[in-house]
């Protein structure tokens, strides 16, 4: 029910993912005010100046509804700022003279009108706006004071009290609606900005940044760093348009993101066709090496499935080179304008060497990672491998979860024995 209601609200006033805060507010306020004016016209039959008041309410309501249409359907709203304000001001000024002036409470309406104008203001001068509203109300009060005959009075004090009370109550309701609209939209904007922040920072780091305006670097004694690289990317990229290339990478990396999250790894960044994720931070855990290897196995399986699907369609496919190393790092946030969460240390270099010197389609791991995961997986010793700036280092290839720790029909699916051993670490 709630999701259905939200869908209706987004349909009427705009989707926060597609429409700015100002756009959604303009849509909401123009529709609400336009609708209220039209209903006000239909409820004015009992008044002495029925035809005039009906025309003012109905015509101004139609104009506001038309502005809503231009904004919501045609996406024209910045250009409507002053037409919108002038429509409201002309309507209120006319009602001032035909509905008892300030004695009938018409001055109350200028308060929400100014609030609306201030909320929607963007590139205009706010002092000019306030001065303009001050000028209009000063002129109205002056005319009423010096030319009282221009204002149509009430027949009795009872009529005046009833109209003033009705106007006051109506303005209270209207102001409440405006506050609700603004609060609702601000909450949506806050959630959207928080969501964007969580797309580039881990949740605990994002909270620290919002709370303290900076993040203290943290040293982690044991994390597992996973690097991947698309094999043949450069050659295939030369044959693809920019749109196709980005679309392809987006599809793959969305899959990578889902797999990394499932195995409790924190995505750090992508650089071109390279992908980097880390287990064991920002919240340390003793199982991060196992998590990283499980993630690596699933990533390679995902790439194999994608390759089969693409070959069936006679489309070129990429393969993946993947390396994992476990060791200490320092993590923190760098930058002020476009900040990024990153890690530093020799462990990062070693993980990169595991990837660049690794075998395509395999999960290549270092000695340090092997020592932590050997009880869980079937692993082959590849031997000594020459790694750039590292000399000869041991490399291992993870083939699958150990037979006794997996389901017979699925080499990547851990059974209860695996989970029991995993939880005991």
TrEMBL record:
Taxonomic superkingdom: Bacteria
UniProt EC number: 4.6.1.1
GO-annotated biological processes: cAMP biosynthetic process; intracellular signal transduction
Substrates-to-products reaction catalysed: ATP = 3',5'-cyclic AMP + diphosphate
Predominant localisation class: membrane
Location of this chain's protein in the cell: Membrane
Transmembrane spans: 25-44, 50-69, 76-98, 104-121, 128-146, 166-183
Entry-linked Gene3D superfamilies: Nucleotide cyclase (3.30.70.1230)
Gene Ontology cellular component annotations, sorted alphabetically: plasma membrane
Keywords for the protein's UniProt record, in alphabetical order: ATP-binding, cAMP biosynthesis, Lyase, Magnesium, Membrane, Metal-binding, Nucleotide-binding, Transmembrane, Transmembrane helix
Molecular functions (GO terms): adenylate cyclase activity; ATP binding; metal ion binding
Domain Guanylate cyclase residues, every copy: 224-355
Record-linked Pfam families: Guanylate_cyc (PF00211)
Signal peptide positions (record): none
Enzyme class (EC, first level): lyase
UniProt subunit comment: Homodimer. Can also exist as monomer.
UniProt family annotation: Belongs to the adenylyl cyclase class-4/guanylyl cyclase family.
Protein name: Adenylate cyclase
Provenance organism: Leptospira ryugenii
Taxon lineage: Bacteria, Pseudomonadati, Spirochaetota, Spirochaetia, Leptospirales
């Amino acid at each position: 029910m709630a999701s259905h209601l939200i869908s209706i609200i987004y349909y009427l006033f705009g989707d926060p993912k597609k429409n700015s805060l100002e756009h959604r507010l303009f849509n909401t306020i123009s529709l609400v005010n336009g609708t209220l004016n039209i209903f006000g016209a239909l409820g004015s039959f009992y008044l002495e100046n029925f035809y005039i008041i009906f025309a003012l309410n109905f015509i101004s309501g139609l104009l506001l509804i038309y502005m809503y249409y231009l904004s919501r359907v045609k996406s024209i709203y910045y250009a409507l700022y002053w037409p919108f304000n002038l429509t409201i001001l002309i309507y209120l000024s006319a009602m001032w003279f035909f509905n008892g002036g300030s004695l009938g409470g018409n001055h109350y309406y200028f308060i929400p009108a100014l609030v609306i104008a201030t909320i929607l203001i963007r590139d205009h001068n706010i002092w000019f706006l306030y001065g303009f509203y001050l000028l209009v109300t000063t002129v109205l009060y002056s005319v009423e004071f010096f030319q009282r005959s221009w204002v149509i009075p009430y027949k009795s004090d009872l009529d005046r009290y009833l109209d003033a009370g009705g106007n006051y109550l109506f303005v209270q309701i209207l102001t409440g609606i405006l506050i609700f609209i603004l609060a609702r939209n601000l909450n949506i904007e806050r959630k959207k900005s928080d969501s964007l922040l969580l797309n580039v920072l881990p949740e605990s780091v994002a909270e620290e940044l919002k709370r303290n305006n900076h993040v203290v670097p943290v040293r982690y004694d044991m994390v597992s760093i996973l690097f991947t690289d698309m094999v043949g990317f450069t050659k295939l990229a030369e044959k693809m348009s920019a749109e196709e290339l980005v679309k392809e990478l987006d599809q793959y990396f969305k899959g990578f993101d889902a797999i990394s999250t499932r195995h409790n790894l924190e995505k750090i960044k992508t650089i071109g066709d390279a992908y980097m994720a880390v287990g064991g931070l920002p919240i340390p855990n003793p199982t991060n090496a196992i998590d990283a290897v499980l993630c690596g196995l699933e990533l390679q399986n995902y790439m194999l499935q994608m390759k089969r699907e693409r070959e069936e369609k006679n489309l070129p496919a990429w393969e993946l080179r993947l390396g994992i190393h476990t060791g200490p790092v320092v993590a923190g946030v760098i930058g002020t304008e476009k900040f990024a969460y990153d890690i530093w240390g020799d462990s990062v270099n070693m993980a990169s060497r595991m990837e660049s010197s690794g075998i395509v389609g395999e999960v290549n791991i270092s000695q340090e990672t092997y020592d932590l995961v050997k009880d869980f997986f079937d692993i082959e010793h590849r031997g000594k491998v020459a790694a750039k700036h590292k000399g000869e280092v041991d490399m291992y290839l993870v083939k699958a979860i150990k037979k006794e720790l997996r389901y017979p029909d699925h080499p990547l699916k851990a059974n209860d024995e695996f989970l029991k051993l995993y939880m005991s670490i």
